[in-house]
Specification:
alpha/beta; 7-stranded mixed sheet
Length: 197
């Protein structure tokens, strides 16, 4: 069954890339599966469903009575994600797709109940997502921040685009938070993983 699911992810990834749909890099997807498996994640929040490629990567690493809660305002993408998960053999009780504004939905999720919070949403809200993740994660849980270098613009101090500025602020908030132990990984457009102590 794991082999079937792995093949399913490769097929989904190829289809999405061919269709021009934005998807995380293969390295990011492999890391999501790895980290979910490493910490035996059962409850995960994903901010930014996309078409289900990253969610499927998380599901493949999760164990036990898993539930992936994935939030996106794009209902057509969530419909594709639902099909992606079902085609990979996941029953509907293993994923909860919520169509809506992420910051509004996150306010309704339970404190300290999640093993992983994967941030892949609107870069202009990364600061708020980081704050919400700290509340949602259990001790030992992991925040994963996608596009942390934003096409290498975040690392360029001369770049003052809105996305670069907000992501810099979010990264600084992670560094300043004593309850988080972060690391930067050279995957995709930069990936930050931060352990909640």
């Amino acid at each position: 069954r794991d082999v079937e699911r792995s093949r399913g992810l490769g097929d989904v990834y190829k289809r999405q890339v061919k269709a021009g749909t934005p998807v995380p890099s293969k390295g990011v997807l492999a890391f999501l599966t790895f980290i979910a498996k490493t910490i035996k994640a059962e409850n995960v929040v994903e901010i930014g469903t996309g078409t289900g490629v990253s969610g499927l990567s998380l599901l493949q690493g999760m164990t036990g009575e898993v539930v992936l809660t994935s939030i996106d305002s794009q209902t057509e993408w969530q419909a594709q994600a639902r099909k992606t998960f079902r085609d990979a053999g996941y029953a509907s009780h293993h994923f909860r797709l919520i169509a809506g504004i992420a910051l509004e939905v996150l306010d309704n999720l339970r404190d300290g109940a999640y093993d992983i919070v994967f941030v892949n949403g609107d870069e202009l809200e990364y600061g708020e997502y980081v704050a919400q993740a700290q509340r949602l994660l259990r001790p030992g849980g992991i925040l994963v921040l996608h596009d942390a270098l934003w096409n290498d613009l975040v690392a360029n101090p001369k770049d003052d685009s809105d996305e670069a500025l907000i992501i810099r602020e979010a990264l600084q908030a992670i560094l300043d938070e004593k309850s988080l132990t972060p690391t930067m990984l050279p995957l995709g457009n930069g990936l930050v993983a931060a352990l909640k102590n």
